[in-house]
Design a protein that fits this description.
mainly alpha
Length: 96
């Protein structure tokens, strides 16, 4: 859970369900089953009757970890200089 959460935070601007699914299947699952099976992760999962996790399962995990999956929105925030006198004057004239 902690590894998945860290991966999500590191890749938040470009994260997709497919990207997270790939990370879980290629990194997390092999790491989890490495010590339990003498075979690769896919064979280990098949022993329990599991295959790949579907996108809806990955989405549910995202929600359980406290994340929301929303379309990316463009936005602009004042970062520097929003309190400079010239900027404040312009904002006031714009509002009027």
């Amino acid at each position: 859970m902690h590894q998945i959460r860290e991966y999500i935070k590191e890749n938040l601007p470009t994260l997709s369900i497919e990207m997270l699914s790939e990370y879980i299947h290629d990194t997390i699952i092999p790491h989890l089953v490495k010590g339990q099976f003498q075979v690769d992760a896919t064979d280990g999962l098949q022993q329990y009757g599991l295959g790949k996790f579907c996108p809806s399962t990955i989405y549910c995990w995202l929600k359980l970890l406290g994340f929301k999956y929303e379309p990316r929105q463009k936005s602009y925030y004042y970062v520097d200089g929003h309190e400079k006198p010239s900027t404040v004057e312009y904002q006031n004239s714009f509002v009027k």
